[in-house]
Amino acid sequence: MKRSSNPLRPPLLDSHTVPPELVDVFRGTHISDNVNPVTNIEEALYDACYKGHVKKVKRLIKSGAHVNSVNLNGDTPLYAACSKGHVEIVNKLIKHGALVDLTNNNEKTTPLYQASKQGYTEIVRLLIEHGADINLPDKDGTTSLHCAYFKGHNEILELFIKNEATLYETKERLFYTSCLTGNLQAATLFIKYGINVNLENIFGTPLAWACSCGHTEIAKLLINNGAVVNVMDNGETLLYSACSNGYTGIAKLLIENGANVNLLSNCEKKTPLCQASQQGHTEIVKLLIDSGADINQVDQDGIIPVYYAFFEDYNDIVALFLENKATTRECKEGLLCCACKHGNFEIAKLLIQHGVDVNLEGNGDDGTALDLACSNGHVEIAKLLIQNGANINAMNRYGGTSLSFASSENHTEIIKLLIDSGADINLPDDRGVTVLYSTCSKDQTEVATLLTNKGAKVNIASNSGRTSLYHASKQGNSTIVKNLLSCGAYVDAASNSGRTALCHARLKEHREIVELLIYSAMLQNIADETPNFIQKDEKLSAVWDTLRKIEAIKEIKSKIVFSFYDLTEKDVDILSKSITNRDLKFLREQVFPDYTDGLIKRLEAIHLHKKERSETIDALLSNSCFKYNLFSHASEQNRNQNVQLTEDDIRMILEFLETKDLKTMTQAVNMPYSFNNS
């Protein structure tokens, strides 16, 4: 009966053919005494080879143990000896016919693979000398060469390279890997045996790999063996890559070997100096400047290197550029303006120390450095600029000042600083707009109060004739309105189009503002302006009610014929006084554009009617016939009641008579009637 179907293993001997002297050998091999010695002779050989028992191996071979037998895992005695580095046993097995390329069952690895993996150089040499296939892969395609390389067994690697252990493609890949991982010895071996140092694949050259990973010694090895330094790797120069990653040694090596310090990358169109500045690599920046890099060379966006350092807050690099006279105006904004805008105090201070003009204007509409500091709320920078001679009242092309910028953003501390430092609080812009005016139009209560407390004039009108009160009333900000009125703001001041604060307050339905303005008008009597038109507080509600009636009429004006006299006949005195005020007149015109002419004519008719009544009463009192009849009748009544009537008493009585009664009296005394029928 055969033990195994493996053709390399002979059939087991019958039990009676086993020499008795081998029993002691079997029992000394860590195999159970209970196992039949006949079934364990090959297992004994494998075990002896694995453990390095040379004498036992010799005895077992001499006793007929098969050197190419396999254990349950499919491993041969030679495989076991190679995996443990037993050179003498390996040599013995080979001499007795062991097959050097026999693979195990599981991983399909050879004895050579195992020796390479473990780093047993002498065994590898011995196997190669006896014809081992150095290119035989395991089940994953990995050869003994790969194994030696990745384990770092460079002596074994050299043995393989000498014996042409692999195809060119594999050597190339391993050479690339050496440069990538920093395996200097392996890279040296590949170069020694003729590898091309300027190989190039989709990932670049070996030098590019070494530079991108910071392997200075390998980069030096490659350059010394002819590697080209001014090549592009994925659109970047090797120097650009080194500068980007902060590899000072490699950058220096490349420059010393002719790398172009001003060559732009293809991808980002930036110079190595721009990239080093952006990444904050101070030593590399210094190296590049010392090597002649153009510190003012712009990238495709027009940005110079110092700009990149500034925005990353690398103050030491900015200082380097300034010491080397880097320009500060090649970018879209002056560098000082950038520092003031973004609040970088140290760089702003550094720039001023290097003589940068503090009154330099940025591009666009941003204004001066002080404007930018004030607009963005950087108090300390604003102080620094003022202390170094910044023009506080400088205007941009629209007339904006630092104070207007600070006020626009509610930066009260800066507002105080500017005013205390001499800023003109009443300086208007090109539209005639003052800071207070602008503040009121934006509903900024705190700033408006601060400005008035600091002496801002409240009645300065813009080019359109509008005042601060006009805008505060329009916004409905009662706090600002009260503040302005308390500072003497003109209630009746009108814009060029005739609109007033009261007009807009009414249109926006800001009742509290309307009341404030009307109350204030009761207290004011501005020269050449409307006289006081309301004498008593109780009449305020009547005016308001009248305005509400007008609003109601507006909503249904398309359905009715509006009669202003009918609407207001009970409040003629109030309305006749109110309507002469240009605030209410303009308001009426805006609300009733279709009825304006009719309203004005009707109002004129009311005044004419009153005038004619007054003239008629005067005429009656001066008519002798009327006076005789009236006083005769009155005297008779008076004598009976002991009452004395004067002319003033009779005038008062006539005032209460209806127009038709006056007409009757006039006809009675034959006077021509002078009233209009209307």
UniProtKB/TrEMBL annotation:
InterPro entries: Ankyrin_rpt (IPR002110), Ankyrin_rpt-contain_sf (IPR036770), Multifunctional_regulatory (IPR050745). Coiled coil: none annotated. PANTHER family: ANKYRIN REPEAT AND SOCS BOX PROTEIN 2 (PTHR24189:SF50), MYOTROPHIN (PTHR24189). This is Uncharacterized protein. The lineage of its organism: Bacteria, Pseudomonadati, Pseudomonadota, Gammaproteobacteria, Legionellales. Gene3D superfamilies: Ankyrin repeat-containing domain (1.25.40.20). Pfam families: Ank, Ank_2, Ank_4. PROSITE patterns: ANK_REP_REGION (PS50297), ANK_REPEAT (PS50088). It comes from the Bacteria. It comes from Rickettsiella grylli.
